[in-house]
Recover the amino acids of this structure.
């Protein structure tokens, strides 16, 4: 891998994304988000059963839980985007280097055909 500006920026994007993901070391937002999602699922289930009061109550609590975990979920989304685009920048640099390297490589021995082989084959056919 050739180190240039894009690969350095990609590395720092990955580094900051991972530090944002693990920032603080707590995953409380994930737990409250899961509880909120379960409460919303439960409210839809109760609404279909015809128990509207229980469904509305569960939906209100589910939205409150999801609203509380919103900063955590946004942080996770930003961290994932930073890691994705950082990795893409680093791999794009590798692909460009591979293309450049493959263009600079020497051609294979078969491509050194100067016409001598064809003439030699014709000469051998005539002398048989």
């Amino acid at each position: 891998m050739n180190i240039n500006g894009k690969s350095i920026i990609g590395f720092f994007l990955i580094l900051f994304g991972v530090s944002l993901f693990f920032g603080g070391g707590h995953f409380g937002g994930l737990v409250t988000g899961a509880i909120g999602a379960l409460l919303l699922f439960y409210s839809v289930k109760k609404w279909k059963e015809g128990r509207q009061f229980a469904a509305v109550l569960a939906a209100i609590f589910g939205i409150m839980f999801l609203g509380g975990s919103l900063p955590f979920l946004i942080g996770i989304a930003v961290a994932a985007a930073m890691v994705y685009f950082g990795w893409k920048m680093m791999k794009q640099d590798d692909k460009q280097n591979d293309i450049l390297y493959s263009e600079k490589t020497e051609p294979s021995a078969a491509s050194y055909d100067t016409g001598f082989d064809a003439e030699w084959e014709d000469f051998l056919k005539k002398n048989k």
The longest helix spans residues 70-104. The radius of gyration is 31 Å.
